[in-house]
Design goal:
The chain is 30% helix and 29% strand. It has helices spanning 15-28, 90-98, 107-114, 116-125, 144-151, 177-185, 230-234, 249-265, 299-306, 311-320; strands spanning 2-9, 34-41, 46-49, 55-57, 64-67, 70-73, 76-79, 129-130, 133-137, 155-159, 169-171, 190-195, 200-209, 212-215, 219-223, 239-242, 271-278, 283-289. A hairpin with a 5-residue loop joins strand 3 and strand 4 (55-57).
Length: 324
């Protein structure tokens, strides 16, 4: 039986979401094939969290734990960390050095795609449409009026390295610009000011299984807030997620083809969810999530369910990808 470490937690505002994802993964992994352990990663503490709440420290020399006096060495890692350090490549580099296989994209892809500005530049170079943006680094001066004149209102202000819309604001009036920049800097040292694109918000997951690419049904996200912010993502009733989205054939083909193309260009592995805005004129790429939400209520599992793939099967496929 293979021993699997489900890593979760992290250092970002997505900590609690990650813990929930890990518990869902453990619940749905086949107990006849996998012996699963939830490993919580915090800045000053890495520990195995047992079902009864007992915590056992991780030996960082080889990423092992002791259970009932016996050393447990893992065969593979199921990455359930949304945000830093599991989605930005830091932790994955450590696993690479230890020779431990993990379910998500490699550390290079993770670092590049987690950085919103780098991600957009690579997508644009590959031929995808992206929204114009301006970068502000902490400590540097900037001309708010010039940025607003360039991008127009409304616009989005967001940290370049964060997820789940943590630190993101939609600025509708110039008076709110400075406050939004300050809010974004609370979540990172670099801020992106991005032109607002009016259209339908859509998400498409791609997964490669044993060298074959699967493109999941598309989801349309209809937020009941001003945009699909943290509250809308994680509060019941604050958004509608329609799967499969009602799309004309041309749009559906374009979204799925673009997602598969970007999956290859970014050199993704495992599953990755691509987010877009569809306008009457074009499809605009927003970002890619290489560790998307994994609860029953999350977008990716809903898309899989639409294909007849249960969570047990979905998570099993992710592990089969990396285990001999």
């Amino acid at each position: 039986m293979k021993k699997i470490a489900i890593v979760c937690g992290g250092y970002s505002g997505e900590y609690e979401i990650s813990i929930s994802s890990a518990k869902v993964v453990k619940k749905h992994l086949d107990p006849t094939k996998y012996e699963a352990y939830v490993i919580v990663i915090q800045k000053n503490s890495w520990y195995h969290l047992e079902d009864d709440g007992t915590k056992t420290d991780v030996d960082k020399n080889d990423f092992s734990i002791k259970v009932n006096g016996k050393k447990v060495v893992f065969d593979a890692i199921f990455n359930a960390i949304h945000g830093v350090p599991g989605e930005d490549g830091q932790l994955l580099g450590y696993f690479e050095m230890l020779g431990l296989p993990y379910t998500s994209s490699n550390f290079t892809t993770s670092a590049l795609t987690f950085h919103k500005d780098f991600c957009k530049k690579i997508a644009a170079a590959a031929g995808a449409n992206v929204s114009p943006s301006v970068i502000i680094n902490r400590g540097e001066s900037y001309d708010a009026d010039k940025i607003i004149k360039t991008l127009k209102l409304p616009l989005f202000i967001k940290p370049t390295r964060n997820g789940s819309s943590v630190g993101v604001s939609k600025v509708n009036v110039a008076e709110d610009f400075e406050k939004a920049v300050e809010f974004a800097f609370k979540a990172g040292d670099q801020v992106m000011c991005e032109k607002f694109v009016k259209g339908r918000e859509l998400a498409c997951t791609v997964m490669q299984v044993k060298g074959k690419t699967m493109v999941f049904p598309i989801t349309e996200i209809v937020s009941k807030n001003d945009f699909f912010d943290y509250e809308a993502k994680y509060t019941a009733g604050k958004s509608d997620e329609i799967t499969p989205a009602e799309l004309d054939e041309v749009s559906e083909i374009e979204i799925k083809a673009t997602s598969a193309m970007l999956y290859d260009k970014f050199e993704c592995k495992g599953f990755a969810r691509f987010d877009y805005i569809l306008t009457p004129k074009q499809l605009v790429f927003i970002e890619v999530n290489i560790v998307p939400g994994m609860s029953e209520a999350s977008i990716m599992p809903k898309q899989a369910a639409c294909m007849g793939i249960t969570l047990d099967k979905l998570f099993g496929l992710a592990l089969e990808n990396i285990l001999d």
